[in-house]
Design a protein that fits this description.
The protein is mainly beta. It is built from one helix and seven strands, in the order H-E-E-E-E-E-E-E. The strands form two sheets. Strands 2-1-6-7 form a four-stranded antiparallel β-sheet. Strands 3-4-5 form a three-stranded antiparallel β-sheet. Strand 6 and strand 7 form a beta hairpin. The longest helix is centred in the first third of the chain and has 14 residues. It is globular, with a radius of gyration of 18 Å. 19% of the residues are buried.
Length: 132
């Protein structure tokens, strides 16, 4: 059996939520931890170590949501900026109009360990797992 490499879920969840919000004709916003290494945002707009960025097609030119991060060009108060955000710095995504969205946790970045085999004493009832 070939070994597989675990891939973090966060970039896939982020892209899916971005698509869903955009397809719903709402405005996708992301919450960024601006204190993390590699974050390139206009510092004048950082508040309490965080910044909220509009990822709509009208606000984020040349938007790329890759497995390693987000990048795009945007204007802040009319001044053009290149924005670069490592995927680990993305704390959540939501629709501005409704507030619906998703908050990310550290589990979204780390591979999940394989489930352990149940002991013979454990019941055979199905178990549910909370997915954030």
């Amino acid at each position: 059996m070939a070994s597989t490499t675990e891939v973090p879920k966060r970039p896939y969840l982020l892209r899916a939520m971005h698509d869903w919000i955009s397809d719903s004709k709402l405005t996708p916003h992301v919450i960024i931890d601006a204190e993390q290494a590699g974050v390139e945002v206009p510092r004048a707009y950082v508040k309490d170590g965080k910044i909220i960025l509009n990822l709509s097609t009208s606000a984020a030119d040349r938007l790329e949501i890759r497995n390693d991060g987000i990048s795009f060009n945007a204007r802040f108060a009319g001044v053009p900026h290149r924005v670069v955000v490592p995927i680990a710095a993305v704390l959540g995504i939501y629709a501005r109009e409704s507030g619906e969205g998703m908050v990310f946790t550290g589990d979204d970045l780390a591979p999940q360990p394989p489930p352990s085999a149940p002991s013979p004493d454990e019941s055979r009832r199905p178990q549910l797992k909370v997915v954030k």
